[in-house]
Q: What sequence folds into this?
């Protein structure tokens, strides 16, 4: 993994000590009194079933269900309904735009959220889109130990969903980190992210150059996904058109969020730390 991203993970890990995830009541259902211990399977109070995921303890596979359905299913015990956070990272190339802080901000924010989940006694998983969705290596550990964050996929998150969907924890809190700058259907994406979740938060991470077009003059544009080049002359008319298009895109995502019971905010990558109160405003974070 790139050294710049590793450093950003360490910075986010340190910053995350200030915060805790706000856990919706629905995500904590089934728990009474103090939070239970964290070791999987230590409780004998059976709660539910879910599909087997790589890394699950084979002792809790229900072989009777497997015999009947040919599907690996694990038993969930009371401890395993501890509130959970799934962080979903848009791994496309536009999130690693050269000359911007977007990749660093994405890594730092994912790390911050993971530590904030720990501070709220939540488990967590970190997902990245690419050729489908996959969890980062070592994502159950502190962010400084994570591996595999790349942000170099030519596929959009929608395309990744079509290849291999993530196996989210049911009734968990989900946070989607993306610039949202791809042609797609926000409502469809959000339905996929929202299904089975207690809460969904969409955090749009824009570079300063994404939010504000450059000064007037001729520039060469490189499509971060396809590598195609284009020459463009920037003037006030072009700037206004860009801002109008960006506003329409953001409004379409905001509308889809409200329709799907999600919350959305936008952060500028270069101003990440000063933008964090926006995450408190949508009731995602609170001071630890």
A:
């Amino acid at each position: 993994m790139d050294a710049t991203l590793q450093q950003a993970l360490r910075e986010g890990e340190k910053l995350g000590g200030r915060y805790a995830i706000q856990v919706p009541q629905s995500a904590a259902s089934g728990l009474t009194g103090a939070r239970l211990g964290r070791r999987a399977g230590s409780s004998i109070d059976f709660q539910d079933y879910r599909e087997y995921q790589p890394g699950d303890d084979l002792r809790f596979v229900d072989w009777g269900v497997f015999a009947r359905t040919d599907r690996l299913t694990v038993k969930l015990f009371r401890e395993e309904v501890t509130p959970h956070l799934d962080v979903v990272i848009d791994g496309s190339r536009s999130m690693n735009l050269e000359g911007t802080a977007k990749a660093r901000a994405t890594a730092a924010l994912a790390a911050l959220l993971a530590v904030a989940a720990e501070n709220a006694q939540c488990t967590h998983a970190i997902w990245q889109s690419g050729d489908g969705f996959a969890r980062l290596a070592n994502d159950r550990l502190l962010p400084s130990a994570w591996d595999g964050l790349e942000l170099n996929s030519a596929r959009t998150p929608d395309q990744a969903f079509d290849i291999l969907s993530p196996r989210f924890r049911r009734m968990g809190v989900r946070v989607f980190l993306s610039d949202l700058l791809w042609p797609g259907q926000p409502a469809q994406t959000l339905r996929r992210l929202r299904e089975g979740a207690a809460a969904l938060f969409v955090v749009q991470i824009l570079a300063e150059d994404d939010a504000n077009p450059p000064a007037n003059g001729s520039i060469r544009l490189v499509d971060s996904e396809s590598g195609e080049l284009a020459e463009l002359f920037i003037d006030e008319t072009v700037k206004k058109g860009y801002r109008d298009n960006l506003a329409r895109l953001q409004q379409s995502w905001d509308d889809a969020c409200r329709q799907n019971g999600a919350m959305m905010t936008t952060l500028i990558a270069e101003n990440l730390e000063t933008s964090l109160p926006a995450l408190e405003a949508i009731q995602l974070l609170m001071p630890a």
Summary: The chain has two domains: 3-31+82-287, 46-80. Residues 236-259 form the longest helix (24 residues). Residues 46-80 form one domain. The longest strand covers residues 123-130.
